[in-house]
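Appendix B: complex inputs.
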Amino acid sequence: MSEYFLPVFVVIVTVGLSWPLGRYLVYAMDPVSCGPIRSRYESACAAFLGHAAKTGQSWQQYCRSMLTFNILMFVVLYAILLTQQWHPLNPDGKTSLEPSLAFCTAVSFTTNTNLQHYSGEVSMSYFSQLFGLMWLQFVSAATGIAAATALSRGLAGRTDFGNCFQDIWRATGLILLPLSIITACLLVLCGVPMTMEGAAVATTLEGDAQTIARGPVAAFVAIKQAGTNGGGYFGPNSAHPFENPTFWSNVLETMAILQLSMATVWMFGRITGRMKHAAVIFGVMLLLYVSSVGIGCVLESAPTRSLASLPVASSMNLEGKELRFGSAAAATWAVSTTSTSNGSVNAMHDSLNPLTGLVPLSAMWLNVIFGGVGVGLINMFLFVITGVFLAGMMVGRTPEYLTRKVEAKEMKLVLIALLVHPALILGGTALFASTSWGASATQDPGSHGFSEILYEFSSAAANNGSGFEGLGDNTVPWNIATGLVMLLGRFVPMIAPLAIVGKLAAKRATPETAGTFRTDTGLFGIVLIGTVLIIGALQFLPMAVLGPVAEQLGG
Amino acid sequence: MNYLVSSLRLCVLSLIVCSAAYPAVILGFACVAAPEARHGSLIVSADGTIVGSTLLAQSFSRPEYFWPRPSAVDYSASASGGSNLSPANRLITERASEIIGRLRLAEGELVTADLVTTSGSGLDPHITVESATMQAGRVADARRVSTEDLIQLIGETRYQPVFPGFGAEPLVNVLELNLKLDHLSK
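Resulting structure:
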């Protein structure tokens, strides 16, 4: 059993830390009454951010502010990537990106996806990494936290959703920044490079030249993990020894993936004043997470199938894995990174055993097992409403959620937001699998090639960013298609819930009676799991059979 | 219009804090806490040339050196990556047979899995202790030293990623082992 030390340790410590961190998130994001120093800081920030940052906003104003800022984020990064060769901090002379790749990359980092059709150490200057990509890793994650805070305020019954600009700045400066500083310093101590010097050229013992790319890696990796961004400094992400040099750096980075997403659930409970309801949601998420990790670890302990005919000592599947992280590390990370829409990897997902590959795929299909910072909770909110609605229908009562009636208008929005995700994945996969766009890009033959296409669209729609990287996806059709999928997959499920909550908050509160369906009980937990699995997973079953299952059975 | 102004101001503020101040703080910390390692844990020989990085594998193919795991990118540290092959792909079988041929296994001997599979980065600096031990005979022949001395050297280089029994096997850093080997021969 001791080989499961890593997942057990990670789960216990992150769950333990999520509680105090959740308290801190409320202090940082929703400062209702917290002393004169904080008030002075808040008014100073509001003053600097300008007129639009001074007042509370309705959900419409909140969304408009968020979109304006996000469009600006996109424009700035797109411009940086296209003019890279003229910027400072470019010791290795990187040139500008091809326009469709720059589009895909700019969308990818604006939407907190970090799908990378480029390889960091090959294509990016230090300036682009720090002032383009890393900047967006902060503010796109902050956008998610801000949206979750606004949602919680709405569900608390407030019609004032807060101020979007203030919220994004709070999430950036008070949450992501301190967390990243702590993580980055610990990573430096583990041996992660932090230098502004260009690549080093070594002469190996056998006399060859080895060019060693490096840079300000520690700073980058910390926010990549903490903000559920996942875009690596180097191509192989946290499998690269410079991003993740030791067993313990791997433990730290795995915890950093989960930490904020877990704490957000407690923040939601505190702001809405419904801790038991939050505990039920947390419990459902944790149950799904722990069972996925368990299944992943067991499946990945099987040997590499193509070595079966050779004189190889029995071992777990080691293709695409690093030895220093230990045996349970790859599966634990694969589940964590796809549950939370982080998307960093410490092993190549393309080389996971066929059925293991299905575990990260289903985590992205559900996209609610803690989920991306902020947005995971927002996605879960859609399933919560659906669960409440289904339960209400079963007993023949108008469903209510947190004292507000859920009616046809809200349910329509819920369904739109829920259906966007499968429509993007299934539609995109169908289009590319049936045309040469997909067929010419796959690396492995047969059903595994299909899985590569399926994974790429799942990753884009879930704003995850990991990939079955054998796929040759840096082509114009792939860049544009995944770019559009990422945009829709980010903003529809983020704005629709705010609209729903806006409508709910405007309704009169109905007092809770003995007949009210309670959302803070174990029974509701079961309803919620059922809703998530049936509505979230069942529609993907045919794809799962065509891809990973077919490969497992046939090859 | 107000939204755009506030967005621009937020851009400026966050760029200064996240992209300039934050990396500067970490850089400052690294200069104090890890002044050497922060450049990539480079190994510099007595005459000042860079030999490699302890964290990264480099190519070894001569019989007198221990060999690292195979690399899908030929040990490039400027364009790293894994094979991304499905574990069911025939190409893995072909690559493994080729390596097994070069290792010249004794009758009935099994090769360790890490020596025939590529790592995620193509730069995994480690092999398992068994993988090093099974190469000791070849290296000893090529260097005309005793196998026992090499087994002892492997024992000295042995690296335990986490407390024994907690899910990670003892490993050997190939570059460190080969450096010691050269030192031994001199």
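Residues 2-272 of chain A form one domain.
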